[in-house]
Amino acid sequence: MPELPNLLAYALISLGMVLTPGPNMVYLISRSICQGPMAGLISLGGVALGFVFYMLCALGITALLLTVPYAYDAVRVGGAVYLLYLAWQTVKPGGRSPFQVRDLAKDSPRKLFTMGFLTNLLNPKVAVMYLSLLPQFITPSEHGSVLAQSLVLGFTQVSISVCVNAVIVFTAGSIAAFFMGRPRWQSVQRWLMGTVLAGLAVRMAFEGRR
Asked: How far is residue 74's CA from residue 192's CA, in Å, rounded to a whole number?
């Protein structure tokens, strides 16, 4: 098991990441509004599978990063740069809010699931989560194997993401109506998420190996 402070910190970061606007949030909100909550849940099933796929693929890479300092540092710095890029995309003039819903044609359950999976699989924010952030919360010499700790942290992230996204699916219409009718709230939401991303980037860039 990971250290309890590490597990709690990773859970909070996972919560912040899932609340950060990105491809998954945009797709789930748009799909839920255009085709209903059930379509959103089916899409979320694909997103969840994408998380599990990423987690299993990342386990071996995480072990490698923990034993090769230069590889770890390269991914850490690259992840920090990408988080800063996401922060800028969120707060830049003309930045798009995830609550600005797109019109989508109705899809079959199979296509909904597949698109949810592909949307998450091609989401670089997930790669940052598993390849850059997760290794920082593992202490293999004291708290068990890298595999066991990675699985605990990974499933913690998956559980938080699925639960939060499920709430988003069922409340998508209300959330979108609230934000679209209040432009100032959209601006606050974008700057808040941008600040969270920038904070994670600074932490990642300047904090060494745990």
From this structure: 28
pTM: 0.69
Give the range of the structural domain holding residue 105, as residue numbers without chain letter: 4-206
d(CA 99, CA 25) in angstroms, rounded, equals 9
Closest to 137 measured CA to CA, from 41, 39, 9, 17: 9
CA pseudo-torsion sign 56, 57, 58, 64: positive
Residue ranges of the chain with per-residue pLDDT less than 70:
21, 58-73, 75-76, 79, 82-83, 86, 90, 94-104, 124, 127-128, 131-132, 135, 140-144, 173, 175-183, 185-187, 189-190, 193, 200, 204, 207-210
- Number of CB atoms found within 10 A of residue 92's CB: 11
Total domains present in the chain: 1
Contacts of 103 (CB under 8 A, 6+ apart): 34
